[in-house]
Amino acid sequence: MSPGAFFHASLIYMVLIQCAQCCVPSTIQAQVPVEVQPGYVVSKVNVGNCGRKTFAFSTCDPDFRVLPDGTIMTVRMTRVTQEGKNFCVYAQDQRQHRWKVDVTLTRTEQPLPPWQPRPPQQKTVLRRFRRRWSPPPIYIQENSPPPYPKDLEQIGSDSMQNQTVYYRISGPGVNQHPVGVISCEGQTGLLRVHRPLDREEFPQLIFIARVYNAFTHKETDLPLPITVHVEDVNDNAPEFVGSLLFTVEEHSKIGTVVGLINATDKDEPNTSHTKIRYILLTGTDFFSVHSFSGVLSTKTIALDREVQDKHLVTVEIRDMGGATNGLFNTATATIALTDINDNPPTFSNASYKARVQENKVDVLVLRIKVEDKDLKGTPNWRAIFKIVKGNDKGYFKVDTDKETNEGLLYVIKPLDHEEGGHLLLELEAENEAPLAGTTSGWNRATVEVTVGDEDEGPVFSPPILILRVQENAPEGTLIGTYTAVDPETGDGRGIKYYEETDPASWISVEESTGRIMTASAIDRESEFVSNGMYNITVRAVDISNKRGIGTVLIIIMDVNDNNPVITVPDHILCEKEGAELGSITLHATDADGPPYGAPFTFELGEDAGGNWKLKDATGESVVLQQAKALPIGHYQVPVVVKDLQGVGEVQVVTVRVCECANTTPGEEECVPLKRSAALGSWGVLAMLLALLLLLLLVLLFAFICTTESEKIYMDDGSGGMLLKSNTEAPGEEVKTDPFLTLCPSPVEQVDIQTKSQLAGSLAGGLAGSGMAGGLGGGGVGGGLEQETLNQQSMYQENAFHTSTREYRTTDGQSNYYNTSGHYGHGFYGDAGYVSYSGEALDTWRTNEVYLDKKLVYFYEEEDGRYADDLLKDYGYEGEGSSVGSLDCCSQMGLEEDSMDFLDTLGPKFRLLANACTRTSPEDDD
Predict the structure, then answer these.
(1) Which of 191, 412, 551, 747 could share a disulfide with 884, CB 3.0–4.6 Å?
(2) CA separation for the pair 236, 274 (Å, rounded)
């Protein structure tokens, strides 16, 4: 701002201030009664000539108040002395400008002179009332010049009219800090000030005045608080507050706020003494400051950090609104310019040249210098280099040296001199930050790269060859030809070929021609094949022994050479409660790919029987379920699995049916069963006793051969006839020949296919050279033409199955005996046929075979088997029982024929011994 403009602005401001002051009266005079009652309207501050301005009023005397319209009223009863009463009223507008109005009150009624008679007193009871005596308004100017002491005001009490009184004061300024500033003359109540006061230290002093009777020394009135106001004078210059360091971006727009200059003044607030004006003394070409707010802002867009990064601005602050008589201070504000990216990096040269040898990789080709005027180390300065042209095949890359900001040009792929000896690259340099505050763009430069020549090895064309071959192709099958050429001459003569890598040794390469053939059968399902592809590399060697490598990808076409298989052939099937049937899920897989694999078809094999069925088949799984409830045991289930082409085979699934301790799918676990003891000393003793028994049998056979053969007849009162009997009453005796007793199981079902009716129990004898043991039929001497006995029995939870026994008694024909059984979870008995020649030796041989198989069975370990072989007591079951009588098993000869020696074989042979021993009639009773 020019000095002339500043002068005119100051003049206008003073005129406005004067106009505002002329509309507010400076003094008001009013006449009031001697005693002014509360609510009495004294006068009014007339501000009607001030236009639309509104004022807030206040008073310095607590006995008065000013209404918003300027009306002055009394708050409490006020007595006006002969000298009158003075107080002040303050008016303040919206801009915090404040004016003082002095109010003077004079009394309209003069008191009677002393010689004039007073009106007669009324004859009433006089009553004394304490009342508050009016305080005088006391104003003193701060730091007023000497001489001291100076009279301030005289206080007086109403009681002084009727009594002799004296005054005392106390409080701040009297006997408290600041001590000794105010004093009071006791007889007259005259207040004096003894030294200057600083308003900034003591803006007001409030002390207490008391009045006492001179004779009784008692207070005649209530204590009166007296406030001494210290009026302000402009004795303090404004001061700067806070930092004067500011920052702003270069090239900022006009009016951009730089910062706020703060200042304060210790003089009385809201007066002209503290109204500060801000003025820039320097730097006005670039910056400006608001006169009264202190906001510092830019004045131009020409701020350039690269030209001048810091500006020093002198600021003046002056009170009295900037009037020439105001006090002032000056300071220097520092404004730093922050950087923006208004300068792109510039190449030191417009073009560069470099040379690199062919087939070199990761080699530094060139260092490229650039210049940037922006702040070093910032994103505005750091350069980013790009190859915008000439690098279509990706031979080069360019990086930035973080320290020097140079571009580093590297070759990252081997160059071929034969493809091109010269390459032209175009580079562009950018910054990490985008450009701002400038219309310039990014700079570019060219780099000419020369590729040096050198002798190279053969080169395969193409570098990667893809071939196809059928799986299991015979040895010597030609797959394809892979050849290379010398890049220098473009000729492939004299180049030899070898297998570089062949993991499975399936391929052979013909040395002179590069023909690729199979060396062995290729298996697509081999571990060397990935995604149906097999990789090999071929090496080419030229005359100068230079080498070149080529890659061959062989795609193996699948054939259906693998059957689908069940992934888990062994399963555990947990027993279900009630009638629910258990099931398991079978999963299958095929090493062949589509269309030789899934979806699969599942069928039960021919030997599956009716125990199982398949359901819920999917492409790769099927559910195997029981067709009926099966007892605990192991089962072999044949399942036929075929692929999409119908190729497959029978696979056996082992299913163990058991009571499970863990039924979680996939984690089934059978309840462990109690295992039998291992073969110990008793087992060895039993084997020795069995050998002894065989020896006794041989001796007995020799004895029988030396005796005269005689016929044996059945003597049971039936006349030699077999009688049908269903009676199971106790004591029933079934006689059998001791030599032919084979200890059968209880009979559940008897099917006799003869014309005669069988009765009694099995009996027979030796008759001449006929059958050694037979069934009685049409007479003792006559033989049966053909008799067949089918027998099947069930013993508790263990099934005994006895096969058909045939006795052919026709003369000249052999007799056969066949037995087989299932005991517990094992099998014993035969199965074979014993030929009878008609003599007792054949019978003993039959017993020997039976006993041998029994001993072999008991030699094996099986859960829960021995417990079933213990002797059990059977009570009388009455008629109609489905269980046959056991009496027939106890008719084996007399005591002399007893086989009690079998008891020494242990508890596992007790049942066999008791069943095969014929008891006497006394024992039966």
Answers:
(1) 747
(2) 9
> What are the tens digits of pLDDT across the range 767-800?
333 333 333 333 333 333 333 333 333 333 334 4
User: Phi and psi for 888 in degrees, rounded to 5?
Assistant: -65, -15
Q: Are 103 and 43 in contact (CB under 8 A)?
A: yes
Which structure tokens are listed for 686?
């039993």
Distances, alpha carbon 392 to alpha carbons 95, 389, 399, 413, in Å? 73, 7, 17, 12
> Could you read off the pLDDT of 806-840 as tens digits, one per residue?
444 444 444 444 444 443 433 334 433 333 344 45
Tokens of 661: 């301790």
Helix (H, G, I), strand (E, B) or coil at 509: strand
* Bridge partner list, 230: 140
pLDDT digits (tens, 9 = 90+) for 573-587: 888 776 778 888 889
N-to-C CA span, the chain: 151
Which of 421-430, 507-516, 857-866 is least confident? 857-866
**Cα–Cα–Cα angle for 711, 715, 716, rounded to 5 degrees:** 150
Give the C-alpha separation, 599 to 644, whole Å: 6
Amino acid 55: pLDDT: 83
Q: Is residue 472 packed enough to be buried (19+ CB in 10 Å), middle (13-18) or exposed (0-12)? A: middle
Cα–Cα distance, 207 to 223 (Å, whole number): 10
pLDDT digits (tens, 9 = 90+) for 600-630: 888 888 877 788 888 888 888 998 888 888 8
Question: What percentage of the chain exceeds 70 in pLDDT?
Answer: 69
By CB atoms closer than 10 A (0-12, 13-18, 19+), residue 345 is buried
Integer angstrom CA distances of residue 764 from 287, 724, 850, 886: 144, 17, 19, 20
Report residue 169 as tokens: 């004061």
Contacts (Cβ under 8 Å, ≥6 apart) of 222: 130, 131, 132, 133
**Domains of the chain listed by start with CATH number:** 8-107 (2.60.40.60), 138-231 (2.60.40.60), 239-338 (2.60.40.60), 346-452 (2.60.40.60), 459-557 (2.60.40.60), 565-670 (2.60.40.60), 682-924 (no CATH)
- Local confidence band at 264 (pLDDT 50, 70, 90 cut-offs): very high
Q: What is the residue-wise DSSP string for 681-749?
A: HHHHHHHHHHHHHHHHHHHHHHHHHHSPP------SSSTT---------TT------TTT---PPPPSE
Measured distance CA(787)–CA(805) in Å, rounded = 9
Rounded to whole angstroms, what are the CA distances from 28 to 47, 71, 82, 161, 172?
A: 12, 12, 18, 30, 32
**Measured between alpha carbons, how far is 783 from 815 in angstroms, rounded to an integer?**
12
The Cα–Cα gap between 367 and 376 comes to 19
Q: Nearest to residue 380, comparing CAs of 305, 310, 319, 488? A: 305
Angle made by CA atoms 760, 761, 765, in degrees to the nearest 5: 115
**787 membership: H or E segment, kind and range:** strand 787-795
How far apart (Å, rounded) are the C-alpha atoms in residues 750 and 727?
15
Q: Tell me which residue of 170, 156, 158 sits closest to 130, measured CA to CA.
A: 158
CA separation for the pair 235, 244 (Å, rounded): 25
The CA-atom distances, in angstroms, between 523 and each of 471, 555, 810 are: 6, 12, 68
User: Which residues lie below 8 Å from residue 354, measured CB to CB, with a gap of 6+?
Assistant: 365, 366, 409, 447, 448, 449, 450
pLDDT for 296 beyond 80: yes
Position 68 scores a pLDDT of: 80
The shares of helix, strand and coil residues in the chain, as percent rounded to the nearest 5, are: 10, 35, 55
Helix H or strand E segment including 840: helix 840-859
